[in-house]
Amino acid sequence: MGTLKKDFYQLIKTQECLLEFILESAPKGVWCCHLENYKHLWTSPEWQQALGYTAHQQISDCREIIDESSLQQLVANLDGKNFDPSAQYQLNYKHQDGSTVTTYCTGMIGSVKKGAPLLLVLITQINSLPVFTPSDSKTNGHSVTLAREHQHLNEKLRLSEERFRRAFEHAAIGMAIVSLKGKWMRINSSLYNILGYRPSELMKLTFQDITYPEDLDKDLNLLNDVIAGIRESYQMEKRYFHKKGHVVWVMLAVSLVKNSDGEPLHFISQITDISKVKAAESEMKSVLEVTSDQNRRLLNFAHIVSHNLRSHSGNLSMLLNFIETDVDEQSRQELFKMFRHAASNLQETIGHLNEVVAVNTTISANLVKVNLNRAINGAIGNIEALLKAANAICINEVKTEIMVNAIPAYLDSILLNFLTNAIKYRSADRQLIIELSAQIEDRLVILTIQDNGLGIDLQLNRDKLFGMYKTFHTNKDARGIGLFITKNQIEAMGGKVSVDSVVGEGTSFKIYFIK
């Protein structure tokens, strides 16, 4: 308390007439009563007259001038709270003519000294109501007219308040009147149901207490914008904590109520439970992920059909040509053996394709243990004719015990694509040598496929190497789809791919599989 305020307080204590002057001439109605039995202690004369009583008329019980249910609600709002001059509470007074006078007030519960009975003190704004006395209404025609006008205005106010009360209490959405400091002043039953609290429990909390931490700053910033006049209202999606602990998603709409002087009084909050909408959005996202997964699977299926089967058919066709033109019987027998092996691999590839089409779950849920050495040998067998025609050597140095988690059809496709690319982009200046090796790091198997072909200018093409329809050589068969699909298949199985290449020396791809 500042020095001047202390001096003024001491002056009031020593000069009783000064306190009486302040109370009786204040522009706000002031009254107090005992909280235990509601025994009326004092009402400012101006407010007593505003309610149709004479300034000195005796009032023994404050419930004579205040609606009891309204008073009980006010006490519940004030109970256990420090005095907050910015908090405005609704209170219904009883005018002497029987009408209801609805006002907003501030108040506090306290005692004169420790152990003394609790007192209820209220300060109510006097909204320029006509002031008259019962004697005036009997002797003065003008006063009678004022009384009737006053009664008519009070009835209109009562009806307006009744409409608001019914709309507020029975709204299908949560509604609340909130003080400028975030305290609940009035809450409807829908909001209690949304948040799971009993009225007495929720009234002891602020909205900050039950707001999801990540949403609080945004809410408070928007609230401050409204108080500052930057915006009139705001809406936002936010999360509250339910009494049971789970998160409740709501759509919050907030507007500010001001007094006749334009000063902020309190907020009106409208709260719509959108938890089911959020759950539906999450489910829709899951469905879209599954759909995306299925589309990716179809894309891979189409690539395997067009690329891998083409490799198989090309391999078989070339083997037939070798068989037809080779006159050496021993060589023909070796070619027949290669042909049968290639036909067996074709049948296995078709089986893998059926698996790709048949699965209904996500790709990652269909990974199986595959022997990497055996898969590489199968891929080499599928392109034996191509290797023979290109006079190329393919060396499999992967250890026989190494296993990877993969979809067999995808693994076949990945190996075939890298091997056929190595053949396709070989150098005319030297014999093509393709080497495959693998190493284990933590939970990963790293497969390295290295060739001594033409190489790729990575400084120019690294960012678009795995893009769709991107080609880097003048080969007439290049379509720019193979590496795009291959990267897609590797990542679909939880892996990744990297590349290192030097123009004129060759290329090395590293494929990371889950062990």
Written overview of the protein:
With 515 residues, the chain is of the alpha+beta class. Helix content is 46%, strand content 23%. Helix 11 crosses helix 17 (482-492). It is rod-shaped and about 135 Å long. Mean pLDDT is 78; it is low at 127-144 and 358-362.
List the defining traits of the structure above.
5-stranded antiparallel β-sheet; 17 strands; single chain; alpha+beta; rod-shaped; 515 residues
Shape: rod-shaped
Structural class by SSE content: alpha+beta
Query: Which residues sit in consecutive blocks of at least 5 with pLDDT less than 50?
Result: 127-144, 358-362
Biggest β-sheet, characterized? 5 strands, antiparallel
Q: What percent of residues are in strands?
A: 15-25%
**Terminal CA distance:** 72 Å
Per DSSP, the total helix count is: 17
Number of strands: 17
- What Rg is obtained from the alpha carbons, in whole angstroms? 43 Å
The order of strands across the largest sheet is 2-1-5-4-3
* Helix percentage range: 40-55%
The overall pLDDT average reads 78
